[in-house]
Amino acid sequence: MKPEPALEQRGGRSCVGRKAIVYSFMKIPSMLTHVVTYAPEEPVHDAAIEDINKEAFGPGRFTRAAYRIREGGPHDRDLSFVALNGDYVVGSVRLTPILVGTAPAMLLGPLAVRPAWKKQGIGAALMRKSMETARLAGHRLIILVGDEPYYAPFGFRQIVGHQIEMPAPVEPSRFLACELTPRALKDVQGRVRHAGVDGQ
């Protein structure tokens, strides 16, 4: 038979021994310290987001097609979100306004989560939050460069049969779009650029 925890007598009353109390509280933080909330991105988050993206993508990220587009102007903070543990930024997603030819759209990314916080559904939650906010704001189309197996559950599919030109080579299998409204991709063609950049 398992022995009962040691008891101490204090003022005529029994209580669980101090060691048992300390041990019990040691078990609790794992449930409390991993609480994650989601909030619109603010300027105070910029440094942490840069650290997360640097760790996730390395210096080579600046040569990629999506980054070249983002260099054309700012992202939309109202549609960009952070995952927070208290004030600590553990993940981030951004949406940037673009034009595909003359058609307005949004470019999703970077999407990144700190390594210690992966496999907890944080990236998926950031995706859903940003996409739904974009839809409610009236946006019709989102494109990105990424792995279709990951993004397909969110509605992204390969862009096939459209004359869409990125500013740098992109693997066709990784060039994806999600129509937030039906047939949003129909007849869309042309060069992809930041919405703040003139010319087609």
Automatic annotation (TrEMBL):
<dbReference type="InterPro" id="IPR016181">
    <property type="entry name" value="Acyl_CoA_acyltransferase"/>
</dbReference>
<dbReference type="GO" id="GO:0016747">
    <property type="term" value="F:acyltransferase activity, transferring groups other than amino-acyl groups"/>
</dbReference>
<dbReference type="Pfam" id="PF00583">
    <property type="entry name" value="Acetyltransf_1"/>
</dbReference>
<feature type="domain" description="N-acetyltransferase">
    <location>
        <begin position="36"/>
        <end position="171"/>
    </location>
</feature>
<protein>
    <submittedName>
        <fullName>Putative N-acetyltransferase YhbS</fullName>
    </submittedName>
</protein>
<keyword id="KW-0808">Transferase</keyword>
<dbReference type="InterPro" id="IPR000182">
    <property type="entry name" value="GNAT_dom"/>
</dbReference>
